[in-house]
């Protein structure tokens, strides 16, 4: 439980605009503040980290990294992923779990690709926040709070929320579209 509280507090702290917080307590020169106010690098880092996480999990469950049981392979195929999905969603009627697993996989792939490209970034980040929050809640209901906290699923949700609130997305397709 303490890990959950600490994880949540860290997420909340980092969603505050650090530049404003630093201005109030730490004397810094304007050059340093310009670095903090530049959201380009954090935006790309968040997009890349979130996209990689989603696309990695989709690739694993589709068998792109090898068969189940090989090193660095979690599921290795759809069948093993479905066993996990049934465990995580054991509180739901068993008939809808395969449909929800397909929807989650399509959602993860779509959000991952959109974030990677920087296309519809604000919408993709918002969907990522909701998707990961749904995963976290399902994991907590079925296996206790330590499961989503241990896998930092709440952190992914908070990072997605932070990305959705950034003022712009440089080095993205969105920035090219918005220039015109």
TrEMBL record:
It is found in: Membrane. It holds the Pfam family DoxX. It comes from Mucilaginibacter ginsenosidivorax. It comes from the Bacteria. GO terms for cellular component: membrane. This is DoxX family membrane protein. The keyword Transport does not apply. The chain crosses the membrane at residues 96-117, 124-145. Keywords: Membrane, Transmembrane, Transmembrane helix. It is a multi-pass membrane protein.
């Amino acid at each position: 439980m303490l890990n959950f509280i600490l994880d949540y507090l860290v997420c909340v702290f980092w969603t505050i605009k650090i530049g404003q917080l630093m201005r109030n307590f730490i004397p810094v020169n304007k050059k340093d503040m310009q670095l903090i106010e530049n959201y380009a690098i954090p935006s790309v880092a968040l997009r890349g980290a979130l996209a990689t996480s989603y696309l990695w999990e989709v690739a694993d469950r589709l068998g792109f990294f090898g068969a189940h049981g090989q090193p660095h392979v979690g599921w290795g195929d759809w069948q093993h992923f479905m066993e996990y999905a049934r465990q995580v969603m054991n509180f739901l009627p068993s008939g809808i779990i395969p449909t929800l697993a397909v929807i989650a996989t399509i959602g993860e792939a779509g959000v991952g690709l959109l974030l990677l490209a920087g296309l519809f970034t604000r919408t993709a980040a918002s969907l990522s926040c909701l998707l990961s929050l749904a995963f976290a809640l399902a994991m907590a209901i079925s296996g206790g709070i330590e499961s989503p906290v241990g896998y930092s699923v709440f952190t992914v949700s908070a990072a997605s929320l932070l990305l959705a609130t950034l003022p712009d997305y440089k080095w993205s397709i969105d920035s090219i579209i918005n220039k015109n």
